[in-house]
Amino acid sequence: MTQEAQVLSSLKDAPIEQVFRPNSLDYSVNPVPQCLALAERGRLVWFPPWQAWIMTRMDDIMDCWKREYLSSDLYDWQYAPEVPPKEEWSNFETAMIGHSLLADPTHHRLIRKIASPAFSRNVVDEIQRRIEPDIKKLIANLKDRESFDFIEEIAQHIPFISITRMVGVPEQYWEEMKPVIMKFTEAWNPTLTPERREAARQASSRAIDILKLVMAERRDQPLENDFLSVLLEAEKKHEDFEEWDVITLILALIGAGADTTLVGQQWTAYSLLKHKDQIDTALSSLKAFRNAFSEIMRWSCKSKMGFARYAPEDMELLGQQVKKGQMILLMPHLKDRDPDYYEDPDTFNVERVFDPDVLFGYGPRFCIGASLAKSQLYLTMTELFKQFPNLELDGEPERSLEDHNAVTFKKLMLKTNNNR
Ligand code: HEM
Questions:
Q1: How far is the CA of 420 from the centre of ligand 1 (A)?
Q2: Contact, 32 vs 407, CB < 8 A?
Q3: Which GO terms describe its molecular function (predicted)?
Q4: Per-residue confidence of the chain (420 residues) as pLDDT tens digits?
Q5: How far apart are CA 62 and CA 358, in angstroms?
Q6: Nearest residue (CA) to ligand 1, atom 40
Q7: CA 403, CA 406: separation in Å to the nearest integer?
Q8: Displacement of CA 383 from its chain's centroid (Å)
C-alpha cells in the first residue's frame, strides 16, 4: 500500500471532503488513491463542497447514459444562472437557452441526426486536410530549438486552429475569435466573478455575429465536403434545423472541444514520453492510436470532476433521496485504476483491450467530436515524433492547480536532442 493510500485508509470514516480533494496538490500528483477511496463510499455519494451527488459505479453510469433519465440541461440545476426575459436575450442567450442542444432529449436526438453528415468520414478528412499545414508549420518552427514548452508552443494552439479551420473562419476574424474559443466555458462557470462571466458572454455574442457573416458567405458559395456547407445544406432541407441550431452546435463544439483537446494533447505527449518503448506501436496507424489514446486517458486518470446531470424531480436514486434540481456528477474515471475493473491497472499498455470503450461517453450523448479529436491528436503526435525522433521530457513537469476540470501541467518542457 502506498503511503497516501495508507493515510486515506486511516480516514475511512472521515467526511468525504477530507478524503477526496481534487484540487489538492496530492491529487494532481497521484489522483488514484483518492478516486478509489471515493468509489468505496458507495454508488451515489453526497459531496458537500460542490453541493452535488457523485455517481461512482460504471454500471450505474452506463445505465444513466443509455436511458437518459436525468436532465443534461444546465437550466434545470438549482443554482443555474437566472434566465432573463426573452426580449432581453443577447446572441449568447438565444443560442444557449432558446436553441439549447441540451434542453430536451427529443430535440437533442433530432439535431444529432440532422447534423450527423457534418461529422462523416469525408468531412472529417477534409477538416484534417485543412489543419495539417498549420500543425506542420507550428512544429517545423521549433526545429532549431534545444528545448520547448509543448503546451505554449503546440498544445494551446490546436483547439483554435481546429475550430477556425473546421468552420472556415477567414483569418481577418481570428483575433476576435481567439478569446472566445479558449474562454467560452467561462460564460457560465459559477466559480468566476460576474464580471469575468459577462466578459466571456459579450465576446461570445460578438463571435456569433462573425459566425453569422461566415454562414451568409458560405450559403452563397458552398464548398465540397465542407463542415459548414453540410450543416447549411441540412438547414435548407429540415425546417426543424435553422440558423440558430447551427450556431448553437458550433458553440457546443467550442465548449466541449477546446479544453478537452488542450488537456488531451498534454497528457498524450507526456504519457508517450514516459513510455518511449510504446511510441512506435501507438503511432503505427490511426486505428492503433485510437486505442492508445484510450489507454493514455485511462492511465493518466486526470479528470477532477465528471459529467453533470440534474434531477428532473425529487426521486429515489441508487438508495439515496435526491432533490429536484440537484446536480449529479457521473465520474467514469473513478474506475480507471481500479483493479476490480482493469487487470493490472497501473501498467501502461497501448494495446490494452477496451470493451466497452467509454472514453467518449455512450448512448445518445456520445461525443460528437470523437473521431475528429483522435485524428487531430494522431496528426500532431506523428508530426512531432517525425520531426523530433529523439524527443524526451526535460524533467518531471510540475502540475498546475488552475484547471477545475482536469489535472494539467504548468509547463511541459521537452528536449529535442536533434543534434544527437
Ligand atoms: C479530446 C478528447 C475528448 C474527450 C475525451 C471527449 C469526451 C466526451 C464525453 C465523455 C462526452 C459525453 C459527455 C456527457 O455524457 O455528458 C462528450 C460529449 C461531447 N463532445 Fe467530446 N470529447 C473530446 C473531444 C471533443 C472535441 C474535439 C469536440 C468537438 C470538436 C467534442 C465535442 C463534444 C460535444 C458537442 C459533446 C456533447 C454531445 C451531445 O450532448 O450530444 N469533444 N465528449
A1: 40
A2: no
A3: heme binding; iron ion binding; monooxygenase activity; oxidoreductase activity, acting on paired donors, with incorporation or reduction of molecular oxygen
A4: 666 667 777 778 899 999 999 999 999 999 999 999 999 999 999 999 999 999 999 999 999 999 999 998 888 999 887 888 888 888 888 887 766 666 678 888 888 999 899 999 999 999 999 999 999 999 999 999 999 999 999 999 998 899 999 999 988 888 888 878 777 777 776 667 888 888 888 888 888 999 999 999 999 999 999 999 999 999 999 988 889 889 989 988 888 888 899 999 999 999 999 999 999 999 999 999 999 999 999 999 999 999 999 999 999 999 999 999 999 999 999 999 999 999 999 999 999 999 999 999 999 999 999 999 999 999 999 999 999 999 999 999 999 998 888 999 999 999 999 876
A5: 9
A6: 365
A7: 6
A8: 22
Which protein residue has the closest C-alpha to ligand 1 atom 41?
A: 365
Task: Give the C-alpha separation, 48 to 295, whole Å.
Answer: 32
- Cβ atoms within 10 Å of 195's Cβ, excluding its own: 8
Nearest protein CA to atom 6 of ligand 1, as residue: 360
Report d(CA 361, CA 121) in Å as an integer.
20
Does the CA dihedral 270-273-275-277 come out positive or negative? positive
Residue nearest to atom 43 of ligand 1 (CA): 367
Distance separating alpha carbons of residues 220 and 238, to the nearest angstrom:
18
Choose the residue to mutate in 260, 268, 354, 403 for probing ligand 1, maximizing ligand atoms within 8 Å of C-beta. 260
Does residue 31 sit in helix, strand or coil?
coil
CA 159 to ligand 1: nearest atom: 27
Q: How far is C-alpha 286 from the geometric centre of its chain's CA atoms?
A: 20
Question: From the CA of 286, how far away is ligand 1's center (Å)?
Answer: 19
> Domains of the chain, with CATH numbers?
42-415 (1.10.630.10)
196 C-alpha to center of ligand 1: Å?
25
Which atom belonging to ligand 1 lies closest to the Cα atom of 361? Answer: 10
CA distance 73 to 58: 22
- Rounded to a whole number of angstroms, the distance between the first and last alpha carbons of the chain is 41
CB under 6 Å to ligand 1: residues? 65, 112, 252-253, 256-257, 260-261, 264, 307, 359-361, 365, 367-369, 372-373
Q: Ligand 1 centre from 366 Cα, in Å?
A: 7
Which ligand 1 atom minimizes the distance to the CA of 376?
27
